[in-house]
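Obj.: predict assembly geometry.
Materials: sequence records (below).
Method: joint structure prediction, all chains together.
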Amino acid sequence: MYVPVVIVGAGQAGLAMSHHLIAAGIDHIILERGEVANSWRTERWDSLRLLTPNWMTRLPGDGFDSDDPDGYMTGAQVVAFLDRYRQRFCAPVRTRSTVRSMRRSGRGFTVATDDQQWQCDSVVVAAGASSEPRVPAPAADLPDRIRQITALDYRRPSQLDDGGDVLVVGASASGLQIADELQRSGRTVTLAVGEHIRLPRTYRGRDIYWWMDVIGQLDERYDEVDDIDRARRHASVQLVGSDDRSTLDLNSVASLGVGLVGRLARINGTTAQFSGALANLVANADLKQNRLLDRIDEFAEKHDLAAVIDAPDRPARTRLGAIATELDLARFSSVIWATGYRPTFGWLDDAAFDQRRRVIHDGGVGRLPGMFFLGLPFMRRRRSNLIGGVGRDAADLMGPLRAHLEVLARGHPG
Amino acid sequence: MTQLDKPSVDNGVDVEALRGARQALTDAPAAAKFQWRASCEWIRGTHSRTTMTDFFGLGQNHAHRLAHSIDADHPEIFASEDNGATPPEIVLAALASCLTAGVATVASHRGVQLHSVVATVEADMDLQGILGIDGDVRNGFDGIKVTYQIDADASRADIEAIVAQSQKRSAVFDIVTNPTTVRVELA
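Observations (raw structure tokens):
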């Protein structure tokens, strides 16, 4: 079957792209492995809320009004939001259609699901940046009796019902939130902390995302930052969305009794060995946080905001007590890997990748003519990975996508 | 701020050459594979001399401008002759010199003029470990503390950031803070 454009994935990115294509009158379908907002339905823990406030959580032309603009959506609310959005525009979603392969053929691409084949001129890969967990090598060396789960499989504390201690590996938003929840549920948690980015939930009375928005940080472009590869590899920020807008950081979980250790380096028989470099990672995260807060203070001063915002309330430096570099595994019954995610691109044409099997793209424009990406971290701007950021990226891709379709329509050679 | 905006500084680091090397090794990752070598010969008692003459990198062997050697020994309180620093002290020297080279490099990258940099290193050790008195005591250091005194044309926060970045990019800091597999065999 022929269709001009195939979008892979019916999450916020695919639906935003569909909205723009419908507005431009370009025929397309969205192939979705499960239901609309599938990962929000099936791969999130119960207590998870968006890290961004509701007023930011917008998609192009959604027309929705939030009765709680400063709140943070639950996973179920995100599902409902995306369902409503899809219905509003009658986005052409084919659910339960897992893409198995996407290959160049003729003047475009052949896209195969389990039971159908589509020929198209252009593809938009909007399949999510976090569909597979990254699990580091030491996982293979853990004793069999220790239960291992990833943050994608974690749901709630009762899932780990054996009472033993829990080692949470990774201290970005996922790891910190899970460690916090498990410790509050009565479990004894140790948190292995690698490189991380620390931010207060609010600063001078405003949400940190409000600040990052107004000072222009979220709009920094991929072709303007010093080292885009490094910026794209950054872990998610240490934040949680909650009713009391509290800050979640190493100090807060340590005060609950969570034990902190460095990055998990190696499993050596019955002991786990951790890096001794935690003090430097913590110092670095504090310095980076303060640089952003300095920028905010400068902005506030320049724009004379002092009358409408609170006084500077800098978070305390991260406190570290004595840090173990080795722990006996005997007391642990579970390990939770919150060590990051990556997209699943196994079905993509090999020519889309570099030697290290990372997709090559220039602000979402793929290496193969007619192939586009959407929803990747820092794809075009710092806000690219936010629900409220994907709409602008989708709009930006419309130009090159239309140009590609027009070239084909004119019967350009090749 | 781009590099061009920065005041010119002279810390004796060729920043342009380092940038060029980074780009070259990004484009040709095989050339980044290095091997460091040392040869240690026992002299007498606890005295030994380690010599570094060559290394491998950029696809070929390279000789040092001249062979460097380090004598190691134990102090007189252990009935040795103190012909050199103890091996743990040499580890501290390696750590401090690696971090200090990093401070100079990072400062130069960031356009910060250094006037003086002094690192003081202290590392506690309980000898009950190496003497086999208490099996619960490790042989190595309980911990290492490095204290920098730096005089530079920069704010305290900027100097802290330079020291933090030098740890992030330091080989010896990584070697000391993370486990490394070591195999010792008879030839």
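Conclusions so far: The radius of gyration of chain B is 20 Å.
To do: check interface contacts against the pulldown list.
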